[in-house]
């Protein structure tokens, strides 16, 4: 049995990554973080997706009291653009978030004997976060080789970012083949009854579904 830790946020990319890992023959253990984000909707959706995929999951609650992001500080207005500029790092960037999440995941992996960690990061249709870029993952892999037990033993936990070079449309096409329950996913930075349709995440998701000429089920299906 090939064990893998999958970082699951409840969004489109991480859900696709979970089903991709399953397709590749891994037995996923989902790691879901409640880190003080503006709403709990994505946490709730992540749990539903894990159950739908029949995967075990752990919900980890951590605190980032210094905030530093509009995703954490409810007094800070979320950016709303007509288009997303990946050359600008927006206020929704959470300082060192993927470094923190990956470190938890690798610790979990070493403890349970998993040889792989999957993360749904993307560096094509994305908001410009530095910890979603290929060079970040390459540097993180090198760090693990020197700074973890499995690494110094020559069998470091492998970090897989299978979507990092894909467009949002390519991710959606892959997910449709994998039968990802996209109607359960939540991408919006807001926590309303329906997606706001204006934040960066909504705009990128909208672009992806429009490109593949498929209706976004998060707007049309009961959840």
Query: What's the helix-strand series?
Result: EHEHEHEHHEHHH
Which strand order spans the largest sheet, edge to edge or round the barrel? 3-2-1-4-5
According to CATH, what is the topology?
Rossmann fold
CA-based shape: globular
Q: Structural class per helix/strand content? A: alpha/beta
Rounded average pLDDT: 93
Quantity of strands, as a count: 5
> In CATH, what is the class?
Alpha Beta
Q: Uncertain spans, ≥5 residues at pLDDT below 50? A: none
Query: Number of helix segments?
Result: 8
Let me know the largest β-sheet.
5 strands, parallel
Q: Please name the fourth-level CATH homologous superfamily.
A: HUPs
* Percent of residues in β-strands: 5-15%
Distance between the termini: 32 Å
Rg on CA atoms, Å:
17 Å
What is the annotated CATH architecture? Answer: 3-Layer(aba) Sandwich
Amount of helix: 25-40%
Number of domains: 1
